[in-house]
User: Fold this.
Amino acid sequence: MCGITGWVDYERDLTGERRTALDMTRTMRLRGPDDEGLWIDPHVALGHRRLAVIDVEGGVQPMSEGPATIVYSGEVYNFRELREELVSHGHRFRTRSDTEVVLQAYLRWGAGLVDRLNGMFAFAVWDRRTEELLLARDRMGIKPLYYAPMPHGVLFGSEPKAILANPGFTARVDEDGLCEVLTMSKTPGHAIFLGMREVVPGHTVRVSREGITDREYWALTAQEHTDDVQTTVRHVRELLDDIVERQLISDVPLCTLLSGGLDSSALTALADLALGPESVRSFAVDFVDETGGFIPDELRSTSDTPYVHDVAKHVGSLHTDVVLRTDQLASPRIMDSVLRARDLPGMGDMDASLYLLFEEIRRHSTVALSGESADEVFGGYPWFHDPDIVNTPTFPWAMTSFANGRDLLDPDLNARVEAYQDRRYHEALEEVPYLPGVSALERRMREICYLHLTRMVRVLLDRKDRLSMAVGLEVRVPYCDHRLVEYVFNTPWAYKTYDGREKSLLRGAVADALPGSVVQRVKSPYPATQNASYEKAIRERLGEIVADPAAPIRPYLDPAAVEVALRRPIGHASLQRDRIGLERAVSLNDWLTAYRPASV
Assistant:
């Protein structure tokens, strides 16, 4: 796991641009705290920051072999099988790293190597024979990769900050960019900053003297599902066993993120089974309580902690609760760290707590398994099961207060955001692959699943990657294995709810490995603090912002709505729902202040 960046210019000698190339590379020093590398040829500069996970001594980058040089981020979980295949073709290896396997695979199969990779990855290969650059990204978009076409080449990086560090690129945001920031979905290829793009998940981008070519190598397709329910459940378990075993490969300490929900508990239990006599290590987040105990709300009916402890006891994990205080969550240091990690406005205390959790985990482990994406794959969110929301013509999560958080914005701006969201929604529907002859319900639920797997999940994966890599922690997401995603996407909706509940296939597949309390637990989202002192701190911060005539967010706010929000009693029943708007306003102001994007 690492940070990569680079610069191609066919009309310029980049050997004299070492300083700028280093500046771009060093924007990602937190992603790669273990090593730094830079490789420059007349028309290309490749930079790398390394977090050493596999072959700590041998996997140094940039790595060259023959006519090709690679910078690579991520993990390829089938690298051992690929290595054996390449050896059978006469390839020789100097290291044990998966980086060298990817490089040798390029020399053997060219751009077609991506079809053979199982993992999370983003990489760039420069081929001196053709003077071409190949950019590639994994199928689900687990690892980020951005690029900016330039008059005579391209800039690229794991994060926007690497591109922004080049003086040839100016941070500008047009109305579509602002609207994209204010929605809870990720338009494929959109990078917020004008002139910058993301490599679309499941795509490669080839850069040559003739220009830039984008190629799709993977997408969700409609396939007839012929297995019965029992066979489907059994196959899901077989896939999960294989996925978890593969993703436990590491030369550094590894752990699991444990919330006490079905998703993370299943991974913890399966990891424990795969490790045998070696105990799995687990971590959970909790909050200092000053309210007299957990209070059920519209998002969470139960506290995580009792279920976390049930799982830890059941599997015998070496468990740690990371308990956070309000002064940590509202700390200017943490808020700024989160902003700099994401390069975009964030999600308030849910970002702060995740960052702090990762920061503590990194003291003990370098790699963690996460249950992220199971809800999108298996249909776990409550709105999957609400007919009114399902049949509303928009992104389903946009109907929730959590995803909105725009109640303090200017009404005209909100209307433009709604129009933008509607346009993106209909664009997404045009991509959905269907099977002929299915019922209206089956057709609609395929649409709902597709929207989650291609729009919402990428927001969460990006958040997970940025906040974990900002502390030098690699987080793996087993539920994003493309084999599992493809298989479950094509199972009928009736199978996904065969026991009358959410995530039926996952529950059926792992029930034997979990305590009964967790098997029966109702879905609960990522936890948030219920401590009223946190909202007080955020209100005070927003009050300071709106009192500043130079605050960049002022033109985007509804003054009357802000005044009502700042006067509202703290601690009423809608505490978290209402504070989301406060958090989003503060975060947007901080982003505009720090990045100062020029309006277009």
Summary: The first strand starts at residue 2 and ends at 9. The chain has 23 helices and 19 strands.
